[in-house]
Amino acid sequence: MPRISRILTAVVAAAALSLSVLVPTTAASAAPVNGPAKASLVGFSAGNIISNAVFTDSSTMTEAQIQAFFNSKVKACQSGYTCLKDFRITSVTRPADTYCKGYTGAANETAARIIYRVSKACNINPQVLIVMLQKEQGLVTHTWPSQWRYDKALGQGCPDTAPCDPKFVGFFHQIYGAARQMNVYMEGKYFTWYAPGKTWNILYNPNTKCGSSPVYVANKATAALYYYTPYQPNAAALRAGYGTGDSCSAYGNRNFYNYFTDWFGSTQLAAFSSGSAKITGTAAVGQTLSVAAQFTPAPTSVAYQWYRNGTVITGATGVRYVAVSADRGANLSVKATAKRTGYKDVVATSAAVAVKGVSVDRLWGASREDTAIAVSRAAWPSGTSTVYLATSMSYADALSASAIAAKNEASMLLSPANGLPAAVSNEIKRLGPTRVVLMGGEGVLSSALAKQVAALVPGSKIDRYGGADRYATSRAVVESGGASAEVLLATGLDFPDALSAAAAGSINKTPVLMVNGRSGAMDAATLATIKKIGATKITIVGGTGVVSAGIEQQAKQQGLAVTRLSGADRYQTNVAVNSRYFPTTALKALIASGADFPDALSASALAGRWGVPLLLSQPTCIPRVDGDFMLKRGTEAVTLVGGPGVLSDAGVAQMRACA
């Protein structure tokens, strides 16, 4: 096939020798070998024979696929000949350089293996090398190839006017040399007369009398083909398909296009035949949305970008996205960009989905005492007649007080043991109570503190509920509330489930009785308290690892109706409790930390005042069970109880679901 004009061969020869770059021979008018019938060359562009991306795509075929392709082209080789599918040769080692990564020689390598390895080493599409083998010597389909065809398989280093350069004789040298040469051509350092991005007059034939026409060379790959075969097909060659045109026809680049498109498809980046993207999941704050993207053919990779009202959401580039507070009331969409080697990228854009929102605000202060004050102001903006005061250093006494405080329409404040902070003193004054209840003995809230309280509200009644331990204090508080048909049991050994119980008791005006959950039974004093208030129903908060099965069995033996609310962890137990008391609707909810107790203590009292569920959260994200609960109950507004150091702005305030 035609490769380089005799005039250009003379010009390039000296430079080619000094650069170890030899140009192939010329065969401008050679007839095609073993070509199939082709009716037309629709799509052929003289200025864009093949795209750079396709030309340099070394991933199009595996070694096995190349071998299978060769096998499919020759059913049987004539006796005494070795066809390409069976050809083997010992390759040689070639050093790495600017154009190829080098090659480690090996014995008895197949043609398929050599082509595969060279394509990887030199980053050339193996399909390009296969097509060149066919158009030059017909080796892919030849059934009786002579040795000379293998020796000059691609015409590399075999000019028309001289014998082949010995360095390029042999199948391996031809394949490696031609692949490397294509990179030299594309580099554009030594070969510039068909440089891409410019228009060149390109001949139809070595016979200059056959004329030329201007061709805008669009890319490096096409320029490389013209350096290799510097003729374009004339109208007669194009009309002939694989056949012979007229005396001015040249066929090299035409046949390259013919074989490539017949055997491997488009020489340009192909187009995906279909693509779609759809958002799945519930479009609500705190919920995880996913994009289901489908493309034909299957892409190598898909990149995602989420949008809020058409604007890029920074960092939202995954297949999943958790809707945050900023998405409330907005429309979310996603673009999925599919990539596949040899294909144009395609973008599928999903339909937009409207996000149901949850508004988020926050009650907090610089300390746990200040947070309790913020809650008190929200709950009792005009003051209240009763204040419960508990230690800020432990949870037990305050938890016992939450339910009774709600029942008595009282505010609950926290204080250190030995004295009131100024802010707490000011809040007590603002509330203007006629009664202040101190939770715990003098070891918890000192006598000096009691005197300080009395001085703040002269004439007010000062009460104290205390006992030998937290359980005695709890019993005293429960009994102070009077009769109740139901009592909530929670462990006094840890705070998470007791917090859930306290909030439930506060909401339902049901007393919370603390027990030693590890014990196999309740003591006599606890049973006496249950009997004294007339309870006939026990609700245990927490699993058997928290409140023992023995306690449950004992309650049943006492003739009490027993219900247990529990989950796999503190968060699931919390949701189980809330689901009991808010079975259908919860338009507003409180969220407090489930990792520490102080702020949740204040929140449990507020839950009763507002009649809303208290959800326990992780510090930097919302447990999925919380999000599901709010979604099912139609929650529209959330108040966080605690500062950003307890419930983060980045996670909880954004209603971001935990992984």
Q: How is this structure best described in words?
A:
This protein is an alpha/beta fold and about 650 residues long. It has 3 domains: about 5-265, no CATH class; about 275-355, Immunoglobulin-like (Sandwich); about 360-640, no CATH class. It contains 21 helices and 24 strands. Strands 7, 8, 10, 11 and 12 form a 5-stranded antiparallel β-sheet that branches. The chain has a 4-stranded parallel β-sheet with strand order 13-24-22-23. The radius of gyration is 42 Å and the shape is elongated. Mean pLDDT is about 90; it is low at about 1-35.
Whole-angstrom Rg: 42 Å
- Straight-line distance between termini: 62 Å
Major β-sheet profile? 5 strands, antiparallel
Provide a count of the helices.
21
Mean pLDDT across every amino acid position? 90
Structural class: alpha/beta
| Shape designation | elongated
Say how many strands there are: 24
> Helicity level, as a percent range?
25-40%
Number of domains: 3
Stretches with pLDDT under 50, minimum 5 residues: 1-35
Share of residues in strands: 15-25%
Write out key terms for the chains shown.
659 residues; alpha/beta; Immunoglobulin-like; 3 domains; five-stranded antiparallel β-sheet; 21 helices; 24 strands; 34% helix; disordered N terminus
Provide a concise account of the structure shown:
The chain is 34% helix and 18% strand. It is α/β, with parallel strands linked by helices and 659 residues long.
